[in-house]
Amino acid sequence: MEHIVIIGNGISGVTAARHIRKLSNKKITIISDETDYFFSRTAIMYVYMGHMTFEHTQPYENWFWKKNNIDLKKGRVTAIEAPSKTLHLSDGNTFNYDKLIIATGSKPNKFGWPGQDLNGVMGLYHKQDLDNLEKYAPNNKVCKRAVIVGGGLIGIELAEMLHSRHIPVTFLVRESSFWNGVLPKGESNMVNREIKAHHIDLRLGVNLKEIKSDENGNATSIVIAETGEEIQCNLVGLTAGVSPNISFLKGSKIETGRGVIVNRFLETNFKDIYAIGDCAEQQIAIDERKPIEAVWYTGRMMGETVAQTICGNKMAYKPSHWFNSAKFFNIEYQTYGWVWAQPKNNEARFYWEHPNGKICIHINFDKDTRQFIGINTLGIRMRHNFFEKVLNEKKSVDYVIEHLADANFDPEFYKLHEKEIVAAFNKENQTNIQLKKKSWKRILSI
Amino acid sequence: MKTIQHTGLGIFLTGLTVFIALIFLGEYKVSPELFNTVVTNKGIKSELFINDIKNNVLEKTFTSPFKFSRAVTSAIKSANASHKQNSEWDKVIWDKPHSFSYAIAKEAGIGIVKEHKWLFWWLTFGLGIIGALLFIIPQLITLGAPGIKNDGIYHKPATNRGWIGWCVFTFLVAFYVLLYFRPDYIVNWTYVVDPISKSLNGNLASQWFLYGFIYCVVMLVMAVRMYIKYRHNNYQLLRTTSVLFFQVVFAFLIPEILVRFEKPWYDFKNAFPLDYDFFFSWNLNELIASGGLGLFILVWGVVLSLVIVPIMTYFFGKRWYCSWVCGCGGLAETLGDPYRQLSDKSLKAWQLERWLVHGVLVFALVMTGFTLYTYFSGTAAVLGIQTQTIQDIYGFLIGSIFAGVIGTGFYPIFGNRVWCRFGCPLAAYIGIVQRFKSRFRITTNGGQCISCGNCSTYCEQGIDVRAYAQKGENIIRASCVGCGICSAVCPRGVLKLENAPEKGRINPTEILLGNNVDLIELLKKK
Ligand SMILES: Cc1cc2nc3c(=O)[nH]c(=O)nc-3n(C[C@H](O)[C@H](O)[C@H](O)COP(=O)(O)OP(=O)(O)OC[C@H]3O[C@@H](n4cnc5c(N)ncnc54)[C@H](O)[C@@H]3O)c2cc1C
Ligand code: SF4
Ligand code: SF4
């Protein structure tokens, strides 16, 4: 029986394993040393905040793996010998495979800051980081202030986490506004306001210079590069992005760039070795996507795809339209298609913001053809299905505006803002679009 | 703010302490006149009992309800024992001993509580309500801006099965045991609500009036908490208002007022088979005897269960009843909300649930079958089994132990819907309708789920919502009561409770939306 070995029990590796099991009876082993069972990395914040226990983050009960005949092996792979199809483990043992899937995910970036390895300096990625956080920041007596370096999705989650335990937070963001490499101005500003409303000491346009320590190697303060200001703190969170966790591949002759280089079939330069998820880097980026996509959904999709290939139905990784979501404190964010931080030449925008400053919608469309390109919403939930269809069928922005009621996915009885949005759009674009009533026929295509 | 809350907590605990202490206050003394009335009213023929009481109870002062109860119930028991032995069936006292003892104690009580009912109302209910509100209302500020408020739930001993949880558990279980099985211990509690009972139905308060009153008060106070906690979520606000309305008006005020006009006590929203004694002969007889209204109730009860329940469920799902109307649901969604995360999500629990809840439904239906057969044929036994025995077993095991002691008492341990999930025969019935013939579903939003697990954690029905959401599948489950909390707590906007055409309601998916369109098509064709 063919033996499929997967390194990494994150969403990518586990999805691949589940789908291979659905499609075949091949022998499957997942190797990882982070935790015994698959858990949702995306949920670690809720454990620290006390919304859930760690067990709740495990999507499958512990009997699941045995029942589905998926072997779990606890261990760390230190090297891969591709020609002999052998893995070397940190305990000195070796392990053979017929086909190998590398799904080792990411690790937090550290940019060589002085003091970056001190006690109390940490990223937020692995289960061990969560344990560390409990150690260095269990409450605001032990941790009198925390400094977070890097304004991305993980940084803001860490800020919310610490805030939930009443720990004062200083948030250093290199950009002039939160996540404005991705979010356009309106959205970015709204998030800035939300951060400040939670009494986070948000510092925009600043960089970390160094982290200082006491004689025991515990972090005690940080210094800001631009101003030289020193801020006392007991915890420093490094959340300036992530990069593929592939240093163990050095010397394996598996081709790497920032990540493991793969073609559209998620194959590496060695036959029978594949890479998926955060650690995979597309030789040539797909459409407008980045070559490395470090998000949950793409990891899952790659897992679904590679399982087909391994089970004899060779299949290219060809994701459909981009989508993503996040939550900034109390404000939910969703995106479908593309809304760049800066409009491209052919693009026109429509931005509507609720007077309360916590809800907005931002649509990107083609100036000339009026084709819909993408949408961001803050504080409004949208129907994935609707936008998938709109993008597939290359509908116009006017169609989207007209059918906003079909698109809305807010819970029942929520106050809807469609009328205001349509009116604002009409005014701005000299159009006369009438909002259509929600139709199940259209939504369900029946 | 914290000081206000702490003061509130202190006041609340004072009220609670006085409430508990009430049990031990006051004395009981039966006068010959009182006893004569009891003997006449109840038609007691047992001279053994009468003599026993005359020798051991009459004109004696009992300093605690326990002693009094023991004296009366032991008199009943020993009298009954010898009557039964001698087959003197007409002399046997068939009343439940503690209910009998309650009826006498209610009249025989003397002392400070009975003399100052309103004062003690304020010292118990008054302080409790004021204290609780002082604790709850500042949450408007302390919890911060509107949004999901689950910080620290698993750090707090009140909500993570810690010591406070166990204390609440003990109190609730004790309360239900007293209420159902030892009403004669809690006579003092009923004095406190006598004035309110009088003004509503014209009578002194029974233990059931007391229970109904506490139920409403608790729901009202805890609804305030819900309003604050979910103030960003209109679904929750409306739903809470609705259950509150149905409890206070339909389950409490209307029935009590009916009694005032000498009509049968009836809760118009309580559908059979949750209302398991609807077809019991005493109920049917009472309804038939009370004229037009009685007949209307009879027809209404049948129509409600057989027509309205399935039709409403077809259009709106089980939630229309369980989360918008039902009293048990109402308590679970208000008093029980802090405990919803404690429900068991394992597959084993789901298996147990299906056996138990459908077992109770079958039990209820069989019992009703027996009851109706007995009613119309006049034979007391069917297949050699006494109908009365089955009714007693059901009333004890399901009606009291399961619905009350376990159903509510275990909130802080097993979560707030233990009864609704494992025991309620009506829920089982509606669930079958919802599963197979309904427009209701929880739509999963394409591929947006990040498998975080908030939805499953906060599902009071122990449904592993994530198991569906992370596959892109809609959630169609018999047990879903449509509380909407999974949708509320989802940080990615994945879940939406909807009523929509049945077509496409069940959507098993192999892979999720957002992946290769060709792949999705390929797998769909297979
Ligand atoms: C706090 C946080 C919040 C996030 N929130 C979101 C979100 O809301 N939405 C979203 O789309 N994405 C989110 N992400 C990103 C998302 O979690 C990742 O994209 C995803 O987990 C990547 O999955 P993966 O399977 O590729 O890798 P991983 O989940 O990183 O799994 C890789 C596993 O391999 C193990 N491993 C690595 N090297 C070895 C080795 N040599 N030997 C053995 N085992 C090894 C690792 O220990 C790890 O267990 C978040 C990430 C974090 C950290
Ligand atoms: S699935 Fe959602 S709506 Fe249904 S009972 Fe569970 S939490 Fe409530
Ligand atoms: S809460 Fe939402 S994102 Fe989290 S597992 Fe449930 S459906 Fe998925």
Say which molecules are bound, naming each kind only once: flavin-adenine dinucleotide, iron/sulfur cluster
Number of domains of chain B: 2
Work out the largest interface and the residue count of each chain: A-B, 60 and 59 residues
- Give the biggest sheet of chain A: 5 strands, parallel
How much β-strand is present in the residues of chain B?
under 5%
Number of strands of chain B: 7
Sequence of strands across the biggest β-sheet of chain B: 2-1-3
How many whole angstroms does the radius of gyration of chain A measure? 24 Å
User: Can you tell me the CATH architecture of the largest domain in chain A?
Assistant: 3-Layer(bba) Sandwich
CATH topology tier name of the largest domain in chain A: FAD/NAD(P)-binding domain
What is the overall shape of chain B?
Answer: globular
Distance between the termini of chain A: 45 Å
User: Which secondary-structure class do the elements of chain A indicate?
Assistant: alpha/beta
Radius of gyration of chain B: 26 Å
How many domains of chain A, as an integer? 3
Strands of the widest sheet of chain A, in order across it, are 3-2-1-7-19
Strand content of chain A: 25-35%
| Helical percentage of chain B | 55-70%
CATH 4th-level superfamily of the largest domain in chain A: FAD/NAD(P)-binding domain
Strand tally of chain A: 25
